[in-house]
Amino acid sequence: MSADCQPQKSSRGWIFLVLRWATALLILGILFYLLPVTPLRNALARVPPSRFVAVLLIYLVALTGGITKWHTVVNSAGAQLNFAASAQCYTSGLFGALFLPSIIGGDVARLAVGISRSPHPAAVITGNVADRFLDVAAQLTLVSLGLMLLPGSLPVPLQGPAKRLLLVGVAAAAVFLGLAVALHRSLLRGRSIRIRRRLAQLRHAIGAVSRSPWRLVLGWLLGTSVQGTYVMLTALLGITCGLRLPLRVWLFAWPLAKIAAVMPITQGGIGVREAALVVLLAPFGAPASQVLATGIVWEGVIITAGLLAGLTAFVLRYLHTRPQDS
Questions:
Q1: CA-to-CA distance for 95 and 21, rounded, in angstroms?
Q2: Whether this model's pTM surpasses 0.85
């Protein structure tokens, strides 16, 4: 029966992949239909290949900071991965987020490689979760910085929903933590020895992360620096497309658009990110066609980097397995 279920799961995964890409193309198609084509075409034509390549190279350099962050955080949980293994995990995740049939995205590929390379699989899982929290903290840091630098007050249409969303998120997190603390003993009661051992390993990994606060601070600083670099690169592409906005506006809008793209609607958040940017930048007087053009070029950078990340992961895997075969 398990042999029959495996092809079904595989086919279901590919169906989800096709649907998510189709949804991304649908969202982009709606944007193309609603926005004037001529300004969009003119904005895209303003981006020379040399500028695209330069932004791509800086993006790839920034990715090494992301690899260093993930390596630091995961090893603080006790994963005991060398840097090459962490690079393979991270690049596999980048490729998987765009091209592999998974609902969760690149985390599946990243964890699959990390668990196979680490003597402590629970530490890889916990470290990856902590890394995700640091990514969110970095995004919120940039949003807060953008809010502090914005002259005057935030446009009225964005104040209420953002505040309510923050309050709902904090309340949900508090309820979840409260239930976890109150029910953890009853949840463990009657479980098998194997599950209890896995949970004990996970609890040990969480304790290992909490005992390395400075590594977490370093991870947060690295994450904020990497995400800030992405914001500046997007602003540079925006200037190339004729979109001139203060950097503080990008610091506010870009992280929120990326957070919106985390929703598993499209593959890699393609389409959702562009639509969110159009909506978030509209109150600041940004022409929608130029915003969309900037987002399209940025997606080109992300997709190209994802393909290069997949090639890097393949090479690192080959280098790791070659001595064993000889």
A1: 15
A2: no
